[in-house]
Amino acid sequence: MVDTDRITGAAKEIGGKVQGAVGDQTGSRRDSVEGRAREAAGQAENLYGQAKDTVRDAAEHVADTARDIGGRIRETVGGLVGSDDVEDRARRAQGAAEDHFDRARRSVRRAADDASDYAEDAYERGARALRHGQGGVSGQVAEYPLASLLIAGAVGFGLGLLVSGTRD
In terms of pTM, does the model score above 0.85? Predict the structure, then answer.
């Protein structure tokens, strides 16, 4: 089963690529920067989902292995019922298997936590880059409002030509 973070991350990544490419083509620094930030955030979310899938699969594998070991121990003990020494050995073996299972579960959880921390860090960095880029664009617009208005008008005119040119 694919994690939903992978799907939404991939969608954000594609949307960011498109927005960045449109920004590059139209000369809109704001769209270009926003697109790159959305792309990075989408990649981070996709990686986070992949990490969750990997950890979930590993945990299921560990649980299946532990169940298999437990079943084998029960079968062996069931075949040798009556011997106190054998039953004691079987209990110790089952306890050892449960200890290994617990250690494996803790390791998988640690790996999941680490993957989650890395993904959250990447997402935060992307968000900071986006805020920084937006701040730069906002500063330019505030400093040069007339030029910004003319550029926005030119971009709108260009997009209008592109849209009307594709209908012919």
Answer: no
